Amino acid sequence: MSELDVHLAAGKPAVLRVDGASEAATWVAEHRDQLRSLVDQHGALLVRGLPLADAAEFGRVARDLAAPLLPEREAFARRWTYEDGIYSSSKWPPNQPMCMHHELSYTLEFPGLMVFACLGAPTSGGVTGVADAAAVLDALPADLVERFEREGWQLVRNYNEMVGVPWQEAFGTEDRGEVERYCRDNSIEFEWDEMDGLRTKQRRSAIITHPKTGARVWFNQVAFLNEWTIDPEVRDYLLMEFGPDGLPFNSRYGSGAPIGDDVIALLNKVYEEHTRREPWQTGDLMLVDNIAQAHSREPYEGAREVLVAMGEPVRLADCSPTVSSF
What we know:
Blueprint: E1 6-7, E2 14-17, H1 24-30, H2 32-42, E3 44-48, H3 55-66, E4 81-83, E5 86-88, E6 98-101, E7 109-120, E8 124-125, E9 130-132, H4 133-139, H5 142-151, E10 153-159, H6 167-171, H7 176-185, E11 189-192, E12 198-204, E13 207-209, E14 216-218, H8 232-242, E15 249-253, H9 261-273, E16 275-276, E17 285-289, E18 293-297, E19 300-301, E20 305-315
Parallel strand pairs: 2-3
Antiparallel strand pairs: 1-2, 3-17, 4-5, 5-20, 6-18, 7-17, 7-20, 8-19, 9-16, 9-18, 10-12, 10-15, 11-12, 13-14
Helix pairs in contact: 1-3
């Protein structure tokens, strides 16, 4: 089998151009080992030129590359489900960015590989950027790293019909007892309110070790699931209506102390300095090592249809966590 020709350019992810493939799933199956090797080498790989046109074919590609696929749990935004393990990208306002993050980094088991497919490119924007998590960690101030290494980070969430995602949707059940069992099994503190709303709290390591490479990486969603990333007008309204403890999500230091907007601004600045981006084209396939690389979604205009699958589950316990969970 011939070597695949990968194009490398400053400020862009590795791009592999495919010519003459008559069927995407067949081509991917034939080149699976090479593709996985390229992801290991570069952290993220954009495959361009495949005749990838619908969710069913993307499902075959994703299962071949990343099985077993993970179901959505503890969702912070709505997705559409195409089939088991195949979802739309998170439904987030098009004019607002989804800041850099590692998918499901607040769970005890998260995807090792993210698989994206663009079935419809937007008119402008909408890039899925990537950033090297080891380089980001190295660029952060030593005192901030030491604090997060010592304390970890804490995610506080409120699930109800008025803010955020309802708990029934986030946990995939109408049974409060099943939600409680899930929370206990996954080191999540929980409490119900008188309106059938759910409030949860979980502490996780902010810095972990990649189980394959041994690299220490900045691995969390502190810069995204934070009060300072909410649109200011929306944030002011939510604070007025629900108070500081009623926001749909907020990240804190592991001790529970608030994280200032200056820290979030610093994290986003460092992320931006390490972001690599390439505009989507219809038919693109993108593979992202979810531990080695953070990813984002930039604001966009026009219709955008990007599908996602989350596979190759990895347990936090196998990544040398620096703090114990609740």
